[in-house]
Design goal:
The structure is a single chain. This protein is α/β, with parallel strands linked by helices. The chain has a single domain, classed as 4-Layer Sandwich (Metallo-beta-lactamase, Chain A). Helix content is 21%, strand content 27%. The protein contains 7 helices and 14 strands. It has a 7-stranded mixed sheet. Strands 7-8-9-10-11-12-13 form a 7-stranded mixed sheet. The longest helix has 12 residues. The protein is globular, with a radius of gyration of 17 Å. The protein starts with 5 loop residues before the first strand and ends with a strand. The relative contact order is 0.16.
């Protein structure tokens, strides 16, 4: 019996800045029969369809934090799930996010009411407590989350298949040593690299800082994403290779990576 499929698709490699080529932040991970969505910025549902996946196929949504370019299509996702053709969802939807998400979601319900309320216990919310000890095992995968330096609720996620293959998603973050720890030896490290080295701002990484974390973690493959338009004007790979000599990918929307 062969190993279960483990495939990552970049749905959105951009930011809050509107772009015809880069949707806002979102990543699809397919592990066996599970389809996991990480963040759902504007453009996510369209990119899902382009990737051959519907909203009804998604079993879990993970939110790295609550900024609009990461959560902007949560309300449309739930609204479409309820009213487009709810019978197409065969299993409950589970949302996992950091502390404060339940309060955030309650405020959305105060605004939208029944429009986003799924029937028959079809929505489960798991609010993580933003410690390094958060670990949950699901069918076909497990998730380990850690707090990172961006917002109070910000998390990075490590997803592991039963056979030990792993992918880490940094979310938005500044440099933090625990990110190198959780990414240690991972098969794919998906790391934000918002701006070029000479435009560093608090709460975000640059190519060389992302490369530094990847080198410290000895990740097998680094994929940089979350590019502001300024990144299109410089050689991002060259900047990253100042600190990282391993296998490097630069994200594009609908890029697909198989985890072998």
């Amino acid at each position: 019996m062969g190993q279960i499929p483990f495939v990552v698709t970049i749905l959105g490699s951009g930011t809050c800045v509107p772009s015809l080529t880069r949707s806002a932040c979102s990543i699809l991970m397919e592990i066996g029969n599970q389809k996991l969505l990480f963040d759902s910025g504007p453009g996510t549902m369209r990119r899902l369809l382009e990737a051959g996946v519907t909203i009804y196929d998604i079993s879990h949504i993970f939110y790295s934090h609550l900024h609009p370019d990461h959560t902007g299509e949560l309300v449309p996702f739930l609204f479409s799930t309820k009213y487009a053709n709810f019978s197409l969802r065969k299993t409950p939807l589970t949302i996992l996010a950091g502390h404060g998400f339940s309060r955030f979601f309650k405020k959305l319900e105060d605004v939208y009411g029944q429009w986003i309320k799924l029937e028959n216990d079809s929505l489960n919310i798991i609010e993580l407590d933003n410690t390094d000890k958060d670990f949950i095992r699901f069918p076909d995968f497990s998730v380990h989350s850690i707090p990172v330096k961006h917002n109070d609720e910000s998390l990075a996620f490590k997803i592991a298949a039963p056979d030990g293959r792993t992918v880490v998603y940094s979310g938005d973050t500044d440099y933090t040593s625990n990110l190198a720890d959780i990414a240690a030896g991972t098969d794919l490290f998906i790391c934000e690299s918002a701006l070029p080295d000479d435009m560093k701002i608090p709460g975000h990484l640059t190519p060389s800082l992302a490369g530094k974390i990847a080198s410290e973690s000895r990740t097998k493959k680094l994929l940089l994403t979350h590019f502001y338009p300024e990144c299109e004007k410089v050689d991002i790979a060259k900047e990253c290779h100042k600190t990282y000599s391993g296998d490097l990918l630069l994200a594009e929307d609908l890029m697909k990576i198989e985890i072998l």
